[in-house]
Amino acid sequence: MTNPLMKVKQVSADYKQMDAKDRKRFWVDGILNNALYILMAIFIIYTASVKPAFLTLGSFANLITQVAAYLPMALGIAGCIVLTGTDLSAGRISGLTAAVAAVMLQKSDFANKMFQNIPEVTVGWILVVLLGVVAIGAFIGLVNGFFVAKFSLHPFIVTLSTQLITYGIILWFFGLNGNNGQPISGLSKEYKDLVGGEMFRLGNVAIPTYVLYAAILVVVMWFIWNKTAFGKNMFAVGSNAEAAKVSGVNVFWTTVLVHTLAGAMYGYSGFIEGVRSGSVAAATGLNAECDAIAACVIGGVSFVGGTGSISGIILGVFILRIIFVALTMLGVDSSSLYIIKGAIILCACALDMRKYLVKK
Amino acid sequence: MDNKKEILEEVSEADTKNKPREFRGLYKHVKISVRTLDIIIVTCIAVILIVVALDLRNPGFTITFDSKGGTDVDSVNRMYGELLEVIEVPTREGYEFTGWYIDHSCTEQWDQEGDKIETDLTLYAGWKEKKSE
Questions:
Q1: Which residue of chain A comes nearest to B118, CA vs CA?
Q2: pLDDT in tens, A18-40
Q3: Can you tell me the distance from the alpha carbon of B45 to that of A271, in angstroms, rounded to the nearest whole number?
Q4: Are residues B67 and B21 in the same domain?
Q5: B107 with A247: Cβ contact below 8 A
Q6: What confidence tens digit (pLDDT) does each residue in A151-167 have?
């Protein structure tokens, strides 16, 4: 950790010694490399001037809540990106686990209950269901990891196929017991309280408990990435798999475990998603991986492989959410948001490559 | 652990020495100049700003109503955080209107005083069969 103040002094001293051409390059580089931050700043300033409500504590609370909901998936997918791969099945896995969790934790007196003979919802049962859905996610992740590691298949191919297979299973699941594809609602109060219960209020907006859980996950993932042999192996495999193999890293198990861990994270994402949106439909989790991947790339988890940090991922999720909260408040249509998301991903990748090429 | 790191660094240094910087990982086969990347970045930012600007000429969210067999109700436009006050009430022969619902199977009713608009929305009419006298 360098002192930011010293860094600014250093940069300004360097700047004074530059000639006109270098100074021009300094500014062009600075503006382009920080293009997304500048974009975010433009949106913040504009939204704040048009909608004063954007700069209130309540709006900040809303932002934190959203970040907490999107963070777990990004933390999981980041590992796959560090291994120079990616994971396209993330959204669907969380959709499946959301549906399973919702069905298992419906109100006992709910008229449209899908399965009648499910135990009374208690804290113990909720934990069992949580472990169950995390295991489902981890299992699909394990399948992804196995095919990627064993046959050196590109993760795009493997995870695209698991994405579709998982979607098929979701559709099956929604057709069970005469449910006929209807969304699953009527979640039990205990489940809602444990996941989305109010911890405290920030400017009249309740902060749900899953914000706390997200903070715990951040700590756990930080520990795994930075303090364990597994984390160090992951970065070694990501930056150069051959070299890692030569120096004795078990590339196969590292790859499998990274995908399994990622799958477990998607499982958890699904578990809170049901409470967050009140009901679970077959489309739940659709394209969620795009947000997570975009957040990681913005946060400096490079597709080049072997680089990235937990703090970067958090920053990435924050930037993406700030932009979307601002745009929603301005009343930008959700169909336009997709175009903007696409442009942001392309822009983030171009920035990623640019930083890699320009670095001396 | 540190030993491993050193070997890794040596190998990757040997890789990059005497060669122009080449991409690894997912960008392995990418051949692109910094200039082209600059153009892509600027274009992306421009596209984002243009899309937002175009959209802001007609801001807000559309709420459509599915009257499920009743008389048609026109869609309305509302801003983020607004309430949906009085909505036109549809009619249907032989049925009684029970309210607007968020889901198609009519389990969660839209609360006109409490629920705020946060995105585009479709509301479904709830119907109850009238008892024949």
A1: A328
A2: 777 888 888 888 888 888 889 89
A3: 35
A4: no
A5: no
A6: 989 899 999 999 999 99
Which CATH number does the domain housing residue B120 bear? 2.60.40.4270
Test A302 with B21 for CB contact under 8 angstroms: no
Instruction: Say yes or no: B10 and B46 in one domain.
Output: yes
Count of domains observed in chain B? 2
Task: Test B7 with A247 for CB contact under 8 angstroms.
Answer: yes
Q: In sequence order, what are the residues at sequence separation of 6 or more whose Cβ sits closer than 8 angstroms to the Cβ of residue A105?
A: A121, A125, A126, A129, A187, A188, A190, A191, A274
Could you tell me whether strands B61-66 and B121-129 are parallel, antiparallel, or unpaired per DSSP bridges? Answer: parallel
Q: Within this chain, do residues B82 and B30 fall inside the same structural domain, yes or no?
A: no
Give yes or no: residues B46 and B70 share one domain: no
Which of A154, A187, A242, A356 has the most B C-beta neighbours within 10 Å, making it the best mutation to test the interface with B? A356
Q: State the nearest Cα–Cα gap between B73 and chain A, in angstroms.
A: 21
User: What is the rounded CA–CA span in Å between residue A241 and residue B12?
Assistant: 11
ipTM score:
0.80
What tokens appear for A227 in the block? Answer: 């303090």
What pLDDT was estimated at residue B112? 75
What is the least distance, in Å, from the CA of A255 to any CA of chain B?
Answer: 15
pTM: 0.82
Residue B40 lies in domain: 2-56
Partners of A357 on chain B (C-beta within 8 Å) are 21, 34, 37
